[in-house]
Amino acid sequence: LAAANASLQNNQIETLVNEGAKAIIVNPETATSLGPAISYAAAHHVQLISVDTIVGVGKVYMVVRASNILYGQDACAYISSRVKSGYVLDLEGDLTSSNGADRTNAFDQCMAANDPNVHVLKDPTVWTEATAVTDAQNAVNAYGSDLKAIYAQWSSPDLGVLPLLASKHLTGKVLVVSDDGVPFEMCDISKGSLDASQSQPANLYAYWALKYAL
């Protein structure tokens, strides 16, 4: 894990190359952060497969990612079919990343077209769970029962947002839609505390890309 440290991630990839890796799957910190590692891997004839993020510098063997535009559109479709007034909180990812920008732009455009009477609260979080939970807390405090739904653009905020809503007796009253479809979200859906989560198939596709690269 690079812990959001692009320099560390580049060093980790160089270490794997030096240890004899023939192909490496990586989730880049940003679209342009892997330049040194891409050059180093290419010089040693090692294939890199980027998961979930486009690569804006250099050339990798393959980019495997879901349609983040569809993520935003599908979240909007679910919410706009159920919410016709009040406020919807969008816990945005990193707007400098293609994933965060695509999800946000698609969601905003769809909500404006399909739910013009709903006010979308746009809170950029840079994929930071603590920021997302604080933003959700602020929205709950400010708007109370007028807050109709929360769209979390990735799964981690659920860990704080769902207990927050439960503590305010808002479970089932505020729709919660998130992205990733990880196992704990499936459990939350079965318990009724989470309304929907969109699955992320990129890891499975990356596995098959790795087999072809080798």
| Alpha carbon gap, first and last residue | 23 Å
Rg over alpha carbons: 19 Å
Number of strands: 8
* Adjacency order of strands in the biggest sheet: 5-4-6-7-8
What form results from the Cα inertia axes?
elongated
Note the run of SSEs as H and E. HEHEEHEHEHEHEHEH
If you average the pLDDT, what whole number results? 89
What level of helicity do the residues show?
40-55%
| Helix count from the secondary structure assignment | 8
What can be said about the biggest beta sheet?
5 strands, parallel
Overall structural class, as computed from helix and strand content, comes to: alpha/beta
- Given as residue ranges, the uncertain stretches (5+ residues, pLDDT < 50) are none
- Report the oligomer: single chain
Describe the protein in words.
The chain is an alpha/beta fold and 214 residues long. The chain has helices spanning 6-18, 35-43, 68-80, 98-114, 129-143, 158-167, 183-191, 202-213; strands spanning 23-26, 47-51, 62-64, 87-92, 119-124, 147-152, 175-180, 196-199. Helix 2 links the parallel strand 1 and strand 2. The longest helix has 17 residues, at 98-114. The chain is elongated.
Short key terms for the protein model shown above:
214 residues; 46% helix; five-stranded parallel β-sheet
Secondary structure topology:
Layout: H1 6-18, E1 23-26, H2 35-43, E2 47-51, E3 62-64, H3 68-80, E4 87-92, H4 98-114, E5 119-124, H5 129-143, E6 147-152, H6 158-167, E7 175-180, H7 183-191, E8 196-199, H8 202-213
Parallel strand pairs: 1-2, 2-3, 4-5, 4-6, 6-7, 7-8
In short:
By secondary structure, this protein is α/β, with parallel strands linked by helices.
